[in-house]
Design brief:
Elements lengths: L12 H16 L7 H9 L5 E4 L2 E4 H16 L9 H21 L2 H24 L3 H28 L15 E3 L2 E3 L7 H17 L8 H16 L4 H15 L7 H18 L7 H9 L3 H13 L1 H4 L27 H37 L4 H23 L6 H39 L1
Antiparallel strand pairs: 1-2, 3-4
Length: about 450
Amino acid sequence: MDPTAPATTNIHPAALVFVLTAAALVFVLPRRFAFAPLLASACYITVGQVVMVGPLDFTIHRILLLVGWVRILVRGEWDIERLNMLDRIIIVWAMVNLSAHTLLVGTVGAFINRLGFTYNALGFYFLFRVLIVDTEDIGWLYRSLAVLLIPLAFAMLFENLHGRNLFAVFGGVPAEALVRDGEVRAQAAFRHPILAGSLGATSIPLLLSLWWDDGTPRLLVGLGLTAACAVTLLPSSSGPIMTMVAGVGAMLAWRVRYRLWVFRWATLAGLLGLQLVMNAPIWFLIDRVGDLLGGEGYHRSLLIDQAVRHLDEWWLLGTTRTAHWMPFVLPINPDMADITNYYLRMGVDGGLATMALFVLLITAAFRVVGRTTSILDGRGAAFGAKIRIWALGAALTGHVFAFISVSYFDQIVMFWYLLLALIATTDDIGKKVTSKKKDVMRTADSESEER
């Protein structure tokens, strides 16, 4: 399912103990806490730990995903009465991706690869949809994330100071820390430093919202935020820093949430104006930002430029060759350039339709956050509950920026599908609140008529 995964089963004794313990916890913990072992596996276990079943590779994360679904089926915990808009979009997106890539490559191996992608996407998304059903569950998840990030931050700090990755014993990551321009790029259990940094950066808005949560100790919030910032900065990359700035900026937009349309139109007008006066296309602004923060901004700008120039090669079903787009190719696949842009990755793997559905998924998620926040505003909900949901939109903003600099290709996808599932859950919460008000109004009208 993963072309970069080991060809044989590889399980370290420590990982075996972890997966057995985590599987037991997934099965026996109360529903609202059952997510925690899965998130712990994503933080501390590499994709190098894998069990091969014929041509199928099951990482620790996929094994725990399977255990989670066994739990749901055995306990009868599926209680989603009707799929909402986000549920339907993600299903269509995953199916189009699976179909397009299989038709493009035309091999059993390609089908198995996309089957693994679909297993991750729909499996994690709907698992979290079932396990997390209300704002209290969301609050517990935020607190758990704060706790999980603290050991991860210490491990990355050790890697930064000593140049050794503690998670290398599990395989899938280098033993020696990566160094660029004299700066150590800590990555911990993740396949790339930017992926590790993206986790920290997109977690910051969620943890910030806990500051207004009466049930969370301020000490935990402070430690969690410190850890998240460390995880963001220790990879020594501009991508996670931009992601962090975007997420925090979105949190600060709370006070002007009903005027964000002005910002959106002003941004669009500004970009169009820059396009008229710039010698290069506006996506080369990424290069300018990269020059300021340090990083590979030119590579990312050039990649977008080449994708636009070669649109005819990939718009229908994607393409299996991009080596001629860029000066460098992937060592593991000389036919492919390094597609460090998740939006373009969607297009390369499944054509313009897959990319468009991915953008639609993100757009729909933003609308859900805005609509649910407005509903809770109108019902006089506590500020803590409202900011908890607003933080989901801020984290989503962070991911939107992260996708410009990296394609998600390891266990980081678990956190992405988790976020989408949380947003879908808030959509259900908003509808329930609206439904309750309608029921109250009907009851009041009925009593009035009887009088």
